[in-house]
Amino acid sequence: MTEGNVIDAFGTSEIRDYDKLFREFGVEDFTKLDAPDPLTTMRRGIVFGHRDLKPVLKAMKKGEKFAVMSGIKPSNYFHIGSKMVVDEIVYFQNHGGLVYYTFADVETLADNGLSFKESREYARDNLLDLAALGLDLDKAKIYLQSEEPTVLKQAHVYARNVTNNMLEAIYGEHPVRIYMAVLVQVADILLPQLEHGPMPVVVPVGFDQDPHIRLTRDIARKHKLMPPASTYHKFICSLLGVERKMSKREPQGVIYLNEDPKKARKKIMKYAYSGGKPTVEEHREKGGDPSVDVSYQYLTYLMSDDEKLKKIRRDYERGDLLSGDLKKILADHVEEFLINHQKKREKAGKKVDKILA
Amino acid sequence: MTEGNVIDAFGTSEIRDYDKLFREFGVEDFTKLDAPDPLTTMRRGIVFGHRDLKPVLKAMKKGEKFAVMSGIKPSNYFHIGSKMVVDEIVYFQNHGGLVYYTFADVETLADNGLSFKESREYARDNLLDLAALGLDLDKAKIYLQSEEPTVLKQAHVYARNVTNNMLEAIYGEHPVRIYMAVLVQVADILLPQLEHGPMPVVVPVGFDQDPHIRLTRDIARKHKLMPPASTYHKFICSLLGVERKMSKREPQGVIYLNEDPKKARKKIMKYAYSGGKPTVEEHREKGGDPSVDVSYQYLTYLMSDDEKLKKIRRDYERGDLLSGDLKKILADHVEEFLINHQKKREKAGKKVDKILA
Predict the structure, then answer these.
(1) Per residue in B14-30, pLDDT tens?
(2) B8 part of a folded domain
(3) A146 and B156: CB-CB below 8 Å?
(4) In terms of domains, do A28 and A153 share one?
């Protein structure tokens, strides 16, 4: 493991030094912005960075037209980390933004080999989560890449604006199909402005997706569109440890939004990596370490009550709260959340049928 | 100039040795086939080769389903050489084939930088010629690549079947946008079978387009479709000489199907390269050389009456016909053809409006 940051849109990204990220890539500190009614994740630096977000916030405050564009590769079910991005999209929608959301099935095919049919099944499930998390589907443009002729077509237009050298410099060497998917994604990000004319657009992403943003900003300028803004959030870690990424290759470390709440509870109680001390006695005396305790970390994402979270932290550091107690707090929180969430998913069923028939 | 054949789908192709072409590429002699009611160009070896045409002819004779798939880059007006391919398409349509015809505007954008809008204007004009040359537009599927979601989408599916090495081996090194256009073209060629199920499909092409056929045949097999068949025709030369290709960079050497018949007549009289001798006396004595006389060559494409053509050749070789006489025969023929053709173009106007609104 190196000390540096590895940014790869089609591989493994490791971000170990956020300050270096700011210095190297021109990303700015999100917390220095004056975002109205910020989300928990914004207040706590989980949404840590942005590029060019000021025009978006300005439009938002003035009630002018702006859009939020986002999407996902429909190759898996949503997990508890997926919620973060959706919360951001809902945030911008609630503040007046037009929503564009793409299921990147062209990329899933190119990168993962999933057929359009397989992708559609995941997309349907993801859509239930989007609705349950508060996205107003009726006021959003939601589509599969393979079903949206405009992005498929525009990909060829934007292909005129890149050279093979540029693509290799930004993404490394890849099969042509990957570059094709990249250009479809550029078309996704520019679609709101293609349909509504130039306006500020924000794209909430994990930092590993920043190459797409940089490329699209460059191409936008060539087409007299506004370079899209972006926000960057930290990735949620695996239940198995703060250094591990949530991945379906380690299912015991993932909490899916469609999984049985009781199973999720058991998973947390059994697997959540603890920041506690080896014995109860030592823990009572020296206290736990919240920075490596996964239960605590999850609560920073999920528990919006600042005072409550602060008390939990203090009690844990003091040794008043044991790791088992902390796990139980998280397990209660997640179980309750999943029960409510899944009720909302059920209600959303019919709407989803309309959008992805 | 080399002795060999240069086959480049995106550059300059020079075919100097047709026998070598047969030996190297597995192309077979068209004249050895038993095609019913062959066209003038088929009888005279202008349509000189084919790959795998027998299943098409078999389907044709048995009245079974088959298709002819063709198209053009809509980057120019049709000229007298364009007529040849259209004649072939009409031939297969008249013998029961489903017709698919694509205006490859994605390729025009990638290769020539023409916008979709510019391409559409040329496509409209080309469509008038297609109708005037006898294609039944009502029974054909005619489309612009950029307007046909299925081919744009399938290009990404077929991209899974190629590696960068394959593409470079077949086409040489090109910008990604060119490979993208190649994959759209593969989708064009496979579209009839995607829509109608596996069946014989023939693609009439110039030999420079053979790389597309080879690639598509390979991909077809992977998708359990029939590898498309092809026919190959010789290119018509420039008016300025048999060794020169008709090109809009030398407009005095091109006869467009939409140009003023009187201007075409003058062009022929002024520029047609002659196979005659320097002086009338020498010509009367030694005779002319039809193999380099452009007027004679054009007549082999355009004059269907074998006996009449044979007599012209004999008289020219004997010196009874002068180069000026030969030019006049061609000029008369072309002028009359263009007058009739352009009447038919006018009639086709409304149908074209319906197809490319």
Answers:
(1) 666 777 777 777 899 99
(2) no
(3) yes
(4) yes
